[in-house]
Amino acid sequence: MSHPIRRIAISTGGGDAPGLNAVIRSVVFAAEKRGWECFGIREGFNGILRPDRYPVDGITRLTMAQVDHIGHLGGTILGTTNHGNPLKFATTMPDGSVTETDRSGEIHAALKAMDINALVCIGGDGTLTIANVLHQQGMRVVGIPKTIDNDLDKTFTTFGFDTAVAFATECTDRLHSTASSHQRIMVVEVMGRYAGWIALHTGISANAHAILIPEIPYDIEKLTAHLIARDRAGHHYSIVIVAEGANPLGGERVLHEKAGAGYVERLGGIGENLAQELQRKTGKEARAVVLGHLLRGGSPSAFDRVSAMRFGAAAVRALNEGHSGIMVALAYPDVNYVALEEVAGRMKSVPLNGDIVQTARDLNICLGD
After folding, report:
1. For the whole model, what pTM was predicted?
2. Mean pLDDT of all residues in the chain?
3. Range with the lowest mean pLDDT among 88-97, 160-169, 268-277?
4. Which residues contact 301 (CB under 8 A, 6 or more apart)?
5. Catalytic residue among 16, 125, 149, 304
6. Ramachandran bin of 322, using left for φ above 0, alpha for ψ from -120 to 50, beta for the remaining angles
7. CA 347, CA 330: separation in Å to the nearest integer?
8. Is residue 149 annotated as a catalytic residue, yes or no?
9. Among candidates 121, 115, 42, which has minimal Cα distance to 78?
10. Cα separation of 204 and 316, whole Å?
11. Where are the alpha helices (DSSP H) in 183-320?
12. What is the pLDDT of residues 221-275, one digit of tens each?
């Protein structure tokens, strides 16, 4: 891997997040400054693995002129997918059945055929697991942590998280007035997969009265008692923030869709279930609001823009320094390098003895336990 870099490729995989375009812009600018050419792979790795979708430009040239104006835009100009894992690619067999096959070798071969010397993988734990495998196969790879869920290990935060929390907070702020006017319980369901970072930060920021996260299975009776106590004390409305992956004590998570070949399970639906149960148990009107993909969209916050551009530039610097198999991570006041094998397949849960949980408890926010 000591040969000089002339061309690099960029891949954005998994769920979209505010700041992806800022990363792309940063990588292209930093790379061209060093005389490198940049290429973008469409839809994660589908630009290589799905030639039927991109018969011409599955791997497309990126220049400073093309990306100069995209830093403030949400989404990703390259497209993304969470259905195209090359390690478990859904393949239809002659008998019509669908199985998962490992097609990662095709990625390496395609990039080698184009004389692309290195790959910048932007994504969450799934994408970075793929990046680690490609590194082990001999490709020069640097990963960049991306997820609104903030559940990637070894980095203080991921870009997209700050924007998601800011928007969820704004939405919840608005719900206070309507909940108060109607003396209702409002249940706000937010994304986060199996981690409660978005729910916890949103709940504290927006002055919620209860926050339910995956890390703390909730006791519905304790939650109900907390809300009834508020009502009896003269506080006739309540705001409950619930993470999509939260689950009741002794119960199971609510799913929209179970996992299948090439697909991960889809969480969601707990907000409506919880609102119905709280209405039945408290006797108060309860309504559910699902913020869902609204948290993924829109322009990135200033914090996420700066983080994204720091990550992109740091990834190029790492490649220039000869690194591979690493992820750039935010460790204030700097960006540092962490081995992909320390990140791949690992999830950063909310620490139950951490300051953020203790802050919620000190503010008399019910966590369901």
Report:
1. 0.93
2. 93
3. 88-97
4. 18, 162, 163, 166
5. 149
6. left
7. 16
8. yes
9. 42
10. 36
11. 197-205, 220-232, 270-282, 302-320
12. 999 999 999 999 999 999 999 999 999 998 887 876 676 665 667 788 899 999 9
